[in-house]
Fold this protein.
Amino acid sequence: MIDPKARLDEVGERALLRYLRERIPGGPGVVIGVGDDTAVIESLGPFGLVTVDALVEGTHFRRDWAPPRLLGRKALSTGLSDIAAMGGTPRHATVSLSLPPETPFAFVEGLYDGLLERAAETSVNLVGGNVSAAGNTVVVDVTVLGQAERLLRRSGAERGDRILVTGTLGASAAGLLLLAQGVRVDEDGALSSTGLWTESSSGPLLRCLQAHLDPRPPIALGRALGETATAHAAIDVSDGLAGDLLHLCEESGLCAWLDAAALPVDPDAAVVARAGGRDATEMALGGGEDYQLLLAIAPSRVAEIRELALVWGVGLTEIGEFEAGEPAVSLRKDDGREPLRVAGYDHFRAGEPPSEAAPR
Amino acid sequence: MIDPKARLDEVGERALLRYLRERIPGGPGVVIGVGDDTAVIESLGPFGLVTVDALVEGTHFRRDWAPPRLLGRKALSTGLSDIAAMGGTPRHATVSLSLPPETPFAFVEGLYDGLLERAAETSVNLVGGNVSAAGNTVVVDVTVLGQAERLLRRSGAERGDRILVTGTLGASAAGLLLLAQGVRVDEDGALSSTGLWTESSSGPLLRCLQAHLDPRPPIALGRALGETATAHAAIDVSDGLAGDLLHLCEESGLCAWLDAAALPVDPDAAVVARAGGRDATEMALGGGEDYQLLLAIAPSRVAEIRELALVWGVGLTEIGEFEAGEPAVSLRKDDGREPLRVAGYDHFRAGEPPSEAAPR
């Protein structure tokens, strides 16, 4: 047993690696897990999917805002979302951690609690990893490997395709706002501080924080879309609805409009936005990190995909349409259309403080 | 064209991603490279190999010691070495970069020069990546995917197997010593400063720096070993000969002795060690980051493996033998045997300054 309060420079690299090796189980398709020169997996086919994402302290998260267990869950979920958006099944993941020597062991323990829990929920195997000492910034790099029968690309949207999105939008952005206002959850995802808010609003607060700190991309639906070929194109909503729709437009050579009244603005985000004098629709359009699926569907197959979403218990909303034209996104309201300017978050730009919003 | 002197917060994330996307070519077995939700590769089989390694600033490298091009080459080579030690063929790699906003664009350019050059030399495709803004530490995380017909594990050594090692040992440790003494190479790998040394010693200096900054693991031999099944076990020498041999002992349930007189101490490292009052044999035993292959070979197959090494132009030296006994390594000299204490480098231990030696 390692003392949870011990710093990593007291625990030592060998003891840390031994601990991780003992915790990480094998699984289906894993020939050799942790402990040899490389991990060995059975062949992934017919298509192998590979995606890598990083959670960088000060850019994507703050240690005083995100309990390590939730951080571990999210580090895996961002890659799972990419695999879902490709129509694939996630299978394996590797984790590379950069950790300051003064990090308490409990942080690594909590991070792996979350990683292993999320991996078990989604039938993903952790097959290897790397631990490095780092100056003063925690970096969690996760590579997810998956497989697909058929690919769901960004470039397949066709003129006249309906635009559909899973779940609701804006709750993650609202959660970030709440963190900045001092609202906190504990390791188990329960509210530990309501900041400036009253206890009576705990339901919406909790759900927004969960959306931000522990997103649940619709993995099973993504896989089903790959198997049934019901969608022409897909992308996961990580930068924000408007920005990600623009990516689909650019890759497919089309423009698109969104119906402002149809957007599935998250009701809890709306509560938070209203109280803070913010526009919930703007949060839904540009907030980012929703980890929902944005889909291009032929009109004749909309009914079919609605069935599929019902089967998998995923909300699905029709929000617009692709048209011929230069890549651009416009918003349709009662009084006409307005072009949507897609700013997109830029991590490198000076003057923008590092925040947990930081969609990639 | 982006100004090489521009800082990343002036260049912006989008321009940086566009630049990287344009630079990274496709390749055999790559269905979709950079630019969709995930990269897509053809099935790797029968065994898929996965390894992840990180180069962390201040722990594994210093920006004023390692030109970015060489850093890019090394970031890939460490993973290639793992694949070789598993008897596999490297196929694809993903790169996740964490970069401080004030990093000059030229650093990223140089890093990718090195990554792409090394990838082309070894027929590896860069299939994806991630770029994150980070506080003040550069982290280069590289995942390498490979394939193998047959696996060369750490656990297969048998009693009586001969211990062989490729190339020479100690040059990387000597190179690190030289960097600490102010010897420097430029982007092209030419000596730019000899520090306290005279120009006349430039040959040995250069070769030691190259060994440290631009290691060349015997990839083709590793692959051939996997194909021919001539070796019982293998590991790459990254922690240092003694430590990595102990890993083979532990995994195979054996002990081993090394013949001190037989060790292939690098002649250039010997020059550097002599001048610095250091023991070259100790550098060969414990220096680390040699990225050579350490092999367990049945006595009846030593001749065969020597042939194979000749074909691939790789030096190969017999240095000891595995015996029955508790996992341990001893050094045989004229006057008998002494047990080798394997300290092993621990990145997390307080008091040890971050250095470029830092073998993992």
